[in-house]
Amino acid sequence: MPLSRVLLLVFFVSWGLAGCSGQDAAGPKSPSGGGAAGAKKKYRIAVIPKGTTHEFWKSVHAGADNAAKELGNVEIIWKGSHLEDDRDGQISVVQDFTTQRVDGICLAPLDSQALGPFVKEAKQEQIPTVIFDSALDDESSIVSYVATDNYNGGVLAARQLSETLDGKGGVILLRYNPGSESTNQREEGFLATLKAEFPGITVLTSDEYAGTTENSALDKAQQLLIKFRGKVDGIFAVCEPNSTGLLKALELEGLAGKVKFVGFDPSPHLVESLRQKKLHGIVLQDPVKMGYQAVMTLMQHIRGETVEKRISTGEYVATPLNMDEPAMKKLLNPQQFGE
Amino acid sequence: MSNAFPPIETESLSRGRLNLLGSALGPFLTLGIVILFFAVTDQIRENGGTFLSQRNFRTISVQTATVAVAALGMTVVIIAGGIDLSSGTTVALSATVLAWGLKHNWPWAIAVAAALATGGLAGFLNGALISLLRVVPFIVTLGTMTIYLGVAKMIAEETTIRPDQATQVPHWLQELLSTRNEALWLGLPLGVWLALGLALALAAVLRYSVFGRYVYALGSNESTARLCGINVPANKIALYTLAGLFVGVAGMYQFSRLSSGNPTSGLGLELRIIAAVVIGGGSLSGGRGTVLGTLTGAAIMAVIASGCTQLGLNNPVQDVILGVIIIAAVTLDQVRQRRMAG
């Protein structure tokens, strides 16, 4: 028994030594590696989404990948935080890429403040960052901000919903989650437009949060439909999980198609429901373009070109009438990574 | 020590004490292997060679500090045969209290004290409920987990509290876990030194104080401990309170890192905290666990996360690797323990 302990110790010490000698070897290797790559440098670009499982991010991934293929000398490293909505995890990912000295970072920050210092740190290490999808409060350290104009998305939703309601009736705003900047912008755009342009519309409730999952959205939506039964004529759900949960709730309550419903972001199921007129509009962004533009803008900056500080990737509304037009078809069923 | 309490000198108790280093050796070995694995693959990779840099280890130490400090508290709880599922949401609750205090222009000393007290109080409540209601810790803390989440949401009014960085957050708190050169003391940020200091203090308490011996005794065999005249409820409340204080410190760390208080940012954290203790050789059936082991366990998880990012491995792969290592580390440790017992 003592012998095995001694053996373990020897084993461990030798690992330790191996580790140390490895560290020494690290010094000379990196510069020579850099020199060899000088002939045709391959740029390593880290792309960090807010999450990895939503379809939206798979389309962003596809767009980033398109850009890399087009440029030829870019390698995309796609890495989200370990858990969805894990701010601390996303900070760690940014730190790790900074340590590893990638050539640039494209980041969709989970928090408009918390990521700021770490983007600044990357800049101090001469690593440029393009922010996409959601804003960062402190824009002093970033190259550009590539995103949907979410406020305008909310404006479009308000107009579409009011149009289907002929400008009168009671509507519900189903919010997403507290502290989420992009959805907050949509919510504000929606409410401001209703107030300014459509006096015939009454907002029944605008402070209900559906939560981050389809399941939580379903629960909340069902409670609201029961509470406002007979009074509600239209609903706006501000993102895809929200919309899917709300659709299910409408079906369960037998209100699908009767209550006018505008969603945000597509999924195959939502598109099918749009065709069946259970949905009366889906506000669309262009995630493929967002991923593409983020990488392209970053590479332009690395090449020394000047870039716009703010790049909008466009907002659109799909309706049962226009959904078969080619441009809409492409946005309703965006390319996904791996296709 | 053994003279003080001869009757409760059970086999597992003496083993835990005699082989303090021995029981931490298994996790240490795992850590060595994990580091070596990533170091070698990183060297082979094109543009590699950053994994073994001092800077990277500094970054890893910062990334693991929050989980590690909370896991120190969890070590005490798990040695005593308990579990605390509420530790994750308590971290967020403490961070939220700290953010709320600073936002309302409290002096930072008071805000920090309030955050630590929040952790302590949450732990006290856990201990009191477990002792008074005689419900198993798993259930009690499953309940308090959502209670503390709810309380944090009430304080934050269901949003994120953001004190003004320039005027309301003291400089040292911003830099607590910063890897910027100006923030380093002897190569590490203040927060990492504080965590190491707390670890040392806790190790001393567990090893040399009467309370520390009671904790092991409770976890080894609670009824024997009671028969020996140990005041079980009082000690349980004390140890859960102590664990809560550590969680409060972790809350301060989380606030420093996120520069805001978010009620939901602790969800799921408890599993990583528990995993750190278990990978570090802590036994969920009580009586076993060491401070050194826990720190090693936390480091193993952080190294895997960092290594996977640096190698460009995606999250699914990282999930699988972490799971495999948890099972492998614990299995190896048990085999070793059984061999030593037999």
The CATH architecture assignment of the largest domain in chain A turns out to be: 3-Layer(aba) Sandwich
Tally of helical segments of chain B: 14
| Terminal Cα span of chain B | 24 Å
From the helix content, strand content and strand pairing of chain A, which structural class follows? Answer: alpha/beta
Rg from Cα of chain A: 24 Å
Total number of helices of chain A? 11
Quick description:
By secondary structure, chain A is α/β, with parallel strands linked by helices. Helix content of chain A is 49%, strand content 18%. The longest helix of chain B is centred in the C-terminal third of the chain and has 27 residues.
Characterization of this structure:
The complex is a heterodimer of chains A (339) and B (342). Helices cover 49% and strands 18% of the residues of chain A. Chain A has helices at residues 2-37, 55-71, 87-100, 116-124, 150-164, 181-197, 214-227, 240-252, 268-275, 287-302, 326-332, and strands spanning 43-48, 74-78, 104-107, 129-132, 144-147, 169-175, 201-209, 232-237, 260-264, 281-284, 310-312, 316-318. In chain A, helix 3 (87-100) runs parallel beside helix 4 and helix 7 (214-227) packs across helix 8. Chain A has two domains: 43-148 and 287-313, Response regulator (Rossmann fold); 150-284, 3-Layer(aba) Sandwich (Rossmann fold), CATH 3.40.50.2300. Chain A has 339 residues and is α/β, with parallel strands linked by helices. Chain A has a six-stranded parallel β-sheet with strand order 2-1-3-4-5-11, sandwiched between helices. Chain A has a six-stranded mixed β-sheet with strand order 7-6-8-9-10-12, with helices on both faces. Mean pLDDT of chain A is 86; it is low at 1-38. Chain A is built from eleven helices and twelve strands. Chain B has 342 residues and is mainly alpha-helical. Chain B has one domain (10-15, 23-39, 57-341): ABC transporter involved in vitamin B12 uptake, BtuC. A two-stranded antiparallel ribbon of chain B has the order 1-2. In chain B, strand 1 (184-185) and strand 2 form a beta hairpin. In chain B, helix 2 (20-44) packs antiparallel against helix 14 (315-341). The longest helix of chain B is centred in the C-terminal third of the chain and has 27 residues, at 232-258. The radius of gyration of chain B is 20 Å and the shape is globular. At the A-B interface, helix 1, helix 3 and helix 4 of A face helix 2, helix 3, helix 11, helix 13 and helix 14 of B.
